[in-house]
Amino acid sequence: MNFKKLYFFVLILFSGFVFGQEVSLFQQFLGKYDFTMIGNTLNTTENGTGGPCVILTQSSAVLNLNPDQVIQAAYLYWGGSGSNAQFDFNIKLNGVDITPARTFATDITGRGVSGGFADVTGLVTVAGNGTYTVSDFDLNGVIGDYCGNGTNFGGWSILIVYRDLSLGYNLVNIYDGFSRVDQSHTMVSFELDNLNVLHLQGNRIAFLAWEGDEGIAEGESLKINNNIVSNPPLNLPYNVFNGTNSFTGSNTLYNMDIDYFDISDYTNIGDNTMSVSIESHRDAVILNNMVVVLNSEVPDATITAEAIFGGCDNRVVEVDYVVYNTIATDDLPAGTPIAFYADGLLVGQSATVNDIPIGGQESGHITLNIPQSVANNFQLKVSVDDDGTGNGTVIEFNEENNFHFIQIQLGVTPTINPYDGLEKCDTNNDGTEIFNLTTVGAQMLGTQTNVTVRYYTDENDAIQGNNNNIPNPAAYANLSNPQTIWVRLDDPVEC
Fold first, then answer.
1. Alpha-carbon distances of 350 from 77, 319, 339, 397, rounded to whole Å
2. Nearest to 76 by CA among 57, 66, 89
3. SS3 for 336?
4. Does residue 265 contact residue 230 with C-beta atoms inside 8 Å?
5. d(Cα 162, Cα 237) in Å, to the nearest integer?
């Protein structure tokens, strides 16, 4: 099944004030997916080294996917010197005009820097493998103000997500923004939530960052769960923003980084959060996007149910249910427990019989005997992957979608308590008086609640429970002397 663009929310929490735009979840893929990144710099040498104050207007990179790697998405990012008003947002990719769907902005030492984003999935899908050239990207008119302090830069990158049926199942999360660290704002930290780490192999993190310098490495690091990550010799532990491309092995990607790191050793099975921090005490670094890939071969149990109940004084509830394994990358195992709760009280248990394949379902039935301690009107909770204590036995993609609720109203015949008749003196000597019949109804009810009381002048009408009841029983004028009044008590199920 194609699980492309399966969304869930990921909470990003930042510490302190963020310079630029906060990095946040942009897109997510669950299935047999992976990614790669290509791109190139416009700088002819690392800035700040006294080289000429020039910058290219175009550069190229090569995409080389395997035949069985099918492009699902391609996102173009470009960035460089210049405020939004100065920056060249209108560029070309392989001769096709590109305008940004989103833009980014921050500043370095008081000078604006900018970036753009465009979805180029259609273009890259048609073009396929080969050379990609970004052109008409001209920053020569603005970089003169940036060369003196070594903040002149420009470059581009395409992030490509592809599907490969030979892969295991992965969760691919793409985050983007434009968050800056430098000597005045030394750290950006954030937490990725609901990641559900399930395996300790193949877990990776990658990023696109701008303006990093190989020759400046003071207090510089990328940390995952407080562990410093690196991939030497290309990226040493304290110099990861150094103009390198881990996908090609290049160390001449001047003032931009396209790098990835294995983080399997820094995660634990069962983790659903991951802390990330980027730090630099001198070198200015701008994080533009980040990709997290987690091996994610897991089921995801959901359940629906219908209840059959009725009959007066019958506390038996028949439940038909269906367990699904829809949003999943692995079979849901046989024996997955199911629990049934009446207003929080465990009243029954069952389990799946067979392995449920990806996209599959299994039907079941259970008879529940509801204890007298449970109110006649209650909420039935049907909970899959629940051992009867609220705990699951299966690691799932989403642990928060295992429930189905049904409101139940059991039928109970009301009890008729002892009651008195009504008598009044005939003050007008005409054989009629005004009687409050509800006082008798209140005696019949006693402490019972949720019972309807109706008053009739005819026994058959009372037996049938039709609408010929007395409309204003609190002020009823008798029709004969004496007169019999018939009282009907109904619970909500008309017992």
1. 52, 11, 7, 22
2. 89
3. coil
4. no
5. 30
Buried b (16+ CB within 10 A) or exposed e, 184-202: ebbebebbbbbbbbbbeeb
Residue with token string 């370095």: 108
CA–CA separation, 86 vs 422, rounded Å?
A: 94
Q: pLDDT for 325-334, tens place per residue? A: 987 878 999 9
Three-class secondary structure of residue 231 per DSSP? strand
For residue 416, give Cα distances in angstroms to 349, 446, 447.
37, 8, 11
> What count of other Cβ atoms lies within 10 Å of the Cβ of residue 291?
23
Angle, CA of 484, 489 and 494, to the nearest 5°: 135
Amino acid at 277: S
Label the pairing between strands 91-93 and 403-409: unpaired
CB-based burial of residue 263 (10 Å sphere; 0-12 exposed, 13-18 middle, 19+ buried)? Answer: buried
Tokens at 426, concatenated: 């005939």
CA 128 – CA 160 distance, rounded (Å): 11
Alpha-carbon distance 315 to 178, whole Å?
A: 61
Nearest to 154, CA basis, from 166, 141, 167: 141
**pLDDT tens profile 14-65:** 333 346 788 888 998 988 899 999 999 999 999 987 788 999 999 999 999 9
- Length of the chain (residues): 495
DSSP H helices in 58-207: 121-127
Q: How far is CA 351 from CA 12, 216, 238, 382, in A?
A: 37, 60, 52, 12
Q: Please give the structure tokens belonging to residue 265.
A: 């050793």
